[in-house]
Structure formats: structure tokens, C-alpha cells
Amino acid sequence: xxxxxxxxxxxxxxxxxxxxVDGGFAxxxxxxxxxxxxxxxxxxxxxxxxxxxLQVSSGARKYANxxxxxxxxxxxxxxxxxxxxxxxxxxxxxLDHGADFEICKACxxxxxxxxxxxxxxxxxxxxxxxxxxxxxxxxxxxxxVEGELGVLAGIEDDxxxxxxxxxxxxxxxxxxxxxxxxxxxxxxxxxHGAFKFKPGQDPKIRLDILHEIERRIPxxxxxxxxxxxxxxxxxxxxxxxxxxxxxxIGIGEDQLREAAKSAxxxxxxxxxxxxxxxxxxxxxxxxxxxxxDPRQYLSxxxxxxxxxxxxxxxxxxxxxxxxxxxxxxx
Length: 330
Description:
Elements: H1 14-23, E1 27-31, H2 35-48, E2 52-56, H3 58-64, H4 66-83, E3 91-98, H5 101-109, E4 114-117, H6 124-140, E5 144-149, E6 154-156, E7 159-161, H7 169-179, E8 183-186, H8 207-216, E9 221-224, H9 232-240, H10 253-260, E10 264-269, H11 271-287, H12 294-317, H13 323-329
Parallel strand pairs: 1-2, 1-10, 2-3, 3-4, 4-5, 5-8, 8-9, 9-10
Antiparallel strand pairs: 6-7
Helix pairs in contact: 2-4, 2-12, 3-4, 5-6, 7-8, 9-11, 11-12
């Protein structure tokens, strides 16, 4: 039987993005695959009083099982209430990079409050057709939809592309108008994964393209994928403790903060979280080679992730302090 996200205590992204546009901040969209990641996300956002979008990729659905992920999403709502004295947080459960109508429908029916249909690899007309089909079904269930124009380079889970295809600003009005999407992921130089750029490159996102898109669809919610910064201190910890992450380079946080002040309402961060947990686990085993209880090494990994995500909410995305403001608007 289909399950409504409202019965799980989740919300869709509309009230989040309305406040984000007005407030000049971006809502964090953090990917998770297991309990420890989810705990860290909710702990960080509760402490920062930040709204949050819990993202589930196709890889996460295969790894953890869609049913388990749904109940983890429901648990996140209750855990947030625990941590905030019953107030709770605005939490959306979102499908990241849905490949086709069937997976988007399955997620809507299983309690997701938001889905992404990624038709960016299709010709423009086919992308519109596919996105429109998903929007029609999702909106019938009050579920919000993210579409995508342009292609990001890099590799993350099942998403892979060799090079960037920047979003064409002259296409966005037609795409948004024809499909009815609630938000639009664009390609302006961010990239999936930890190996985004070559050594010696000066990674820059195309703020000129962003501002032109903002001019053409004013007030519309824009999304940035591939926005991990790949902190060098985490890469160093990994490499100092047996890892081999050569040439891992990300997007500068100053550029992300600038983007979040404009039309960008949602910023996706996944690789940075993976690095934070892996760095803590490798360091723990180097210092405690006799440990074998998963709780012994997953606890510091969770703490490291919480610290990272607190920093993202407070210093990069500007989302800290807006959680209860959004809850009051529901």
C-alpha cells in the first residue's frame, strides 16, 4: 500500500525553498546510507537549528533497502523532536538522481516527500517529456520535484560523466514552464565525487551563468550538485593512515557561500561526509589496532561527520537558525 510522507512527519521542499529565497541561504541536502550518517545529520541540524533534506541515491537504495531508508527517515523526524525538546525540524526525504519514472513513482509511493528526475542525459525535448511525466504523478501526491539541465562531470554512485555540459540559460524558462518542476539543478562548474579537478587547476563555478539564470527565472529555486569542498585536512588524515587519495580537489567554500546568497536554495554534499567518516575510521584503527567492535570506530566517525555538517550549516550554507522559522510557517 502507498504511504504518504505526511504520515511519516516529513515535509516537502516548498516551505524550505520559500524561506531560502527570501533569506539568502541554501538548505543542506546531505546523502545518507546508514544509521550513523543519519544520526550525525540530525544531531548537527538540531544543534544548528537548520532545515535539512535527507538524500537517498540509487546506490543507497541498493545498499540499505528502500523500506529501511523510509523508516530511517521517519526515525529522523522523531529523533529531531528528542533533540529539540519536542519542537522538531523541517525534514524532507528526497530521491537523488532518479533515472526514470518508475523509480520516482516507487519513492513517492513509499513516503518520499521530494524526488529528482534526472533527464539531463536525454535530448532537451525528451528531458521535458520525462520530467513532465514525473511532475504530474508527484504533484498528485503533493510531492515536490527537482529537474536538471546540463551535465556535471565526475563519478558518484551510479552517476558518471566525463566532462561538463554547462546549463544554457536560454533553455531554463521553457524547461521550467513546460515541466512544472519545483526546483532546477544546474551545471555551472561543480562536479561529482572527490576527484573533481586536476592538480594546478583553480576550481571556479560559473557565477555568471547562475546570475543569468536567476535573471530569467527570478525567485525560482536553483540546486547545486557536486558541491563538496574536499577539505585537504581530511584527505591528509586519510593518506597519513594508509589511504591513497591522490589529487582529491573540491569547490571552495567561499564560492558556495556566494551562490547560496543568490538563487541557490539547495546544495548537495555527499563526498565531504564520506571523507570525514573515512578519515576518523582510518585514524582510529591506526591508534587502536586491537579494536574490532563497530561501535568503537563508528562513534568517532559519526562525531567527525556531525562536526563537518555543523560547519556547513553555519559557515557555508547559511541555513543555521532557520529551522524553527520554517516550522512556524507550516
